[in-house]
Every structure is written in structure tokens, then in C-alpha cells.
Amino acid sequence: MFSVFRQVGISRCAQCFELLAENLHYEVNKRYYCEYDFKQLYAPTCVRCGMFETFGKKIKLGANFYWKRKRFIHCKYITGRVIKVSIDSWHPECLLCDLCQTPLDSKGIWRYAGRLYFFEPISLQLVWVLCSNCKKQMKEAGEKMCARCKLRIEPGKSFRYQHEDIHGYHLNCTKCQEELDENARVLENKPYCSKCYDQLCPTCAACKRPIDNERSVIAVRRHWHLEHFRCAKCERPLHSSKYIEKKDKAYCEDCCIKFTDACYKCGSCLVKQHVTLFKKGWCTGCYSCSACDRTLTPKSKVFELDMRPICKKCYDRFPKNLKERLMSR
């Protein structure tokens, strides 16, 4: 886009209309500029050694206000070699790692803290420019960068939302519209302050406290912290073992057998649907003919033999005298 500076004939600057005769000028897109206007409009300026002023509209970011626009006031224009990093220009001698001061003109560069923001009075918060070793050290130390404003997040101040680490003050509570902090929570992919979250999230049936991000279990039509789900009689933990539900309470199998009937075939507690016959009880799946072991239903016709059920097919195969003896009972 730029041409080398050269001597031109009688002409005027396209910006300030100053006569350009016999002076040193610059040509951009077939238009001529004096040296001052060329630097103001087109010359690359080093972001490290230049100074800025702010103007235009302020924007609110969290609890602070920021200037939306910026411009250089004391510029260090770059003549000669220019290094471009993203949208910024640098002198080769100014492009150093902010931590170890290693020159980065021929190495990989990481912009660790994002955009430039300008505060009132005139001051500048520069991005962190890091070498690969310093970037690795900061990552191991737990340093994080906000996905919204691209600024550094202090340890313990980050809020995880939609798989990103951000400052909490970028969001408002979905319910009360208060500004959030690092203690905010997410429920059904919506952010809430800790107070509103406690009102909306499930509550443990044992300790009556909100179930946050802990592991939990749903049993007996209620929510429980994993460590609070225990036998109602002996308080044995039930989260990794079989339990029996009776009268809206959970019991381990050992306690259940003490006050309920056991299945005649498998020995488990009879608390759900079961069959009671001949002063014995069977689970629905265990109720079968004691001769052929064919599964029976509560509506199946059965005969009694030694206080055990016999299906009609097996009964028909019995000798006549045995049938008469069974019928005479």
C-alpha cells in the first residue's frame, strides 16, 4: 500500500493541503502526504514505548468504567523493521517477555491477558506477552484468563460458565439480576447467585442443605448427599449396596429381614409385590411350581403339597390315591 518516500513536483498534502514542493513526502494509494500526516494516519507505532490518551464513550465492565477508544499522543513511530503481533506493531527491541525479558522477535509469542483497556486518568494496562517457558509456568501456577474481557483472573476468583473461565461480574443472576461473583452457581445452564441457587436446587433429605456440585443420589422419591443416604435403622451407608424401601424409608437387607417376611425361595425381603400362600411368601419372580419349577402367577390354579404350590399339570400326573388324599385334607 505504501510507496517509498520520494521527491515530487508541486503538489499539496491530501490531509492538510500543505505545499509539498521540494520537500520529502509519502505516497499512499496514489495520494501524497506530508511527513507529519503520514505518521499520524499510516505509520506503524510501537505499543510498548508509545503513550496513549483516551476519548469517546465509556463502557461499564463489572464495577469499573473503561474508555472504548484510544489514540497515541507521544508516539514512537517505527522506522525500519516492524514486528506485527495480532493487530499491534512493535520495535524488535521492545518485544520482550514480560517476565524473563527474553527477546521474542524470532520465537513463539503468547498474549496471556488479552485486550488493551484504558482507564481514567490516562494509564494503560498492557497485555502480557510471554515466552513459551513463562506461559507454561503460569499455567502450572493456576493462572487463568477471562474468556470475556481477556484479562487475568486472580486465583480463586474465577467462575466456570459454559466451559469457560470468566470474571463473575460479567454476568447477572437469572432470578434477582444481582451482579455475580466467584461464588455463583449454574443450574440448567443458567447462572444464579449463591442465595438464589440455594432456593432452587434440590435439598438433601437428611441434612436439609442444598445439594451443590456434590455427588448425590435420588432414592425413596427424595434427593440425598451420597454420604447421607443410610439405612434408617442401623445407619449403614447404602449408596453402593442394595437397599429395601418400606414406608418411605430405606433399609439395608440385614435390617429388613428382622421385621419383614423373607422370600421362601431366594430369602430376600418381601416389601414390594409378592405372593403369600400356605403361610409362606414368594417374590413375584420366585413364585413357581415346587415340582416342575414352572413360573406361576397370582391367578394360576395351584394345589398344596407339603405347604408348597403344585401347578395343575403336575397335579394331573399324580396317582389317583395321592390325589384323593390331597383333596381330603
TrEMBL record:
GO terms for biological process: cell-cell adhesion; cell-cell junction organization; positive regulation of integrin-mediated signaling pathway; positive regulation of substrate adhesion-dependent cell spreading. Residues 202-262 form the LIM zinc-binding domain. The keyword Metal-binding applies. The keyword Hydrolase does not apply. Keywords: LIM domain, Metal-binding, Zinc. Pfam families: LIM. One of its GO terms (cellular component) is cytoplasm. GO terms for molecular function: metal ion binding. SMART domains: LIM (SM00132). Gene3D superfamilies: Cysteine Rich Protein. PANTHER family: LIM DOMAIN-CONTAINING PROTEIN, LIM DOMAIN-CONTAINING PROTEIN PIN-2. This is LIM zinc-binding domain-containing protein. It comes from Enterobius vermicularis.
